Amino acid sequence: MAIAKAERLMNLALCLLGTRRPLSKRELRESIEAYLEAGNDDSFNRMFERDKDDLRELGLVIETVENLDAETGYLARRDSNRLPPITLDAEEAAALGLAAKVWQQARLAGAASGALQKLRAAGMPEAEDAYEVHSALEPRIPVHEAAFEPLMLACRDRRPVTFDYRKGNAARHEQRQVEPWTLECWRGHWYLAGWDRDRGAERVFRLSRIAGRVRSRAGAFSAPVPDVVTVRETVESWAGETATRTAWIRLRSGSGYPLRSRAISVRELGNGWDELEIPYGHGLDAWLVEFGPDVVVTEPADLRADVVDRLRAVAKD
User: Fold this and answer.
1) Partners of residue 295 on adjacent β-strands
2) pLDDT in tens, 191-242
3) CA distances from 182 to 45, 89, 95, 192, 227 (A)
């Protein structure tokens, strides 16, 4: 069946590229054997619309033209479907090859590989791959969350979404209606930045706290989308990247290595505890709660209170 569909798509593409005038559905059906075998007009129409969408998804520019008899025709002009000359130098080609290796997520891996093959076929220079043979290291961005792919597509297509989300200090999930802007990876975790319709404000969501399916919704965005730099800074700020103060915590010896890697200073207290000075920014209280009884906040008092409140909320569940 896959071969039959590929052959059908190829025949449709050749018809649309080879014509000098728009072809109607009737003419296309008479020219392609697979369409002639369609059981009835409804089956043919569904098949044709799917094939047309698939070709557009693959990058073919298909024009829709209405003639004097109000009949709709289709064609793909050669000048609109011809790539310009590829002018990448060796360093740019190496950067593209390296970027294609980064993704582990299956959908992106296939797209990246296909894009590289098309560029090479069009004349992109082959670049020496420093990660191919001589290195045991390979750059990767892990994607384990099921919500990643539907949110990536929603960001691309500017589609509102709904999903069930649990905040760091909440015991239960609640539904959120979001206009997704962009996805950012920070410290091994993926975050979604977007406009929360219920709260009427910009919010950032950690993908690992999304439960169930991400559902797309019809309609346009109600809030303007900021530029990429602003969104990225927001993600970093909400994730705790932007530190404006320092905090002092006690950490059980032999635990909390992510905290130790961020520490400005570490001092042994004895009795199995160390004292750490760490940067204090938005989101630190939620991060400290994840270490449970291995962490005790000494100061500042407001951070200590926030951590205690979060622990009490978890204990009530």
Assistant:
1) 251
2) 898 999 999 998 888 898 899 999 999 888 998 888 765 666 766 666 555 6
3) 36, 30, 22, 6, 10
Question: Is residue 277 within 8 Å of residue 246, measured between CB atoms?
Answer: yes
Q: Closest Cα to residue 181, out of 161, 166, 200, 165? A: 161
- Report pLDDT digits (tens) over 89-108: 777 777 776 666 655 554 55
Question: pLDDT tens for residues 22-41?
Answer: 899 889 999 888 888 887 88
Q: What is the pTM of this model?
A: 0.48
- Scanning the structure block, which residue is given the tokens 């050669």? 78
In tens, the pLDDT along 282-317 reads 677 877 888 888 999 999 898 899 888 888 877 776
User: Under a CB-based contact definition with an 8 Å cutoff, are residues 259 and 248 in contact?
Assistant: no
Alpha helices by DSSP H, listed for 19-171, are 25-31, 33-36, 41-57, 90-102, 106-121, 148-157
Residues 6+ apart with CB under 8 A from 314: 169, 171, 289
List phi, psi (to 5°) of 33: -60, -40
- Interior/surface letters 192-209, b for 16+ CB within 10 angstroms, e for the rest: bbbbbbeeeebbbbbbeb
In the chain, DSSP finds a helix count (H) and a strand count (E) of: 11, 12
DSSP symbol at 174:
E
Q: Which residue blocks in 23-89 are alpha helix, DSSP H?
A: 25-31, 33-36, 41-57
> 203 near 163, Cβ under 8 Å?
no
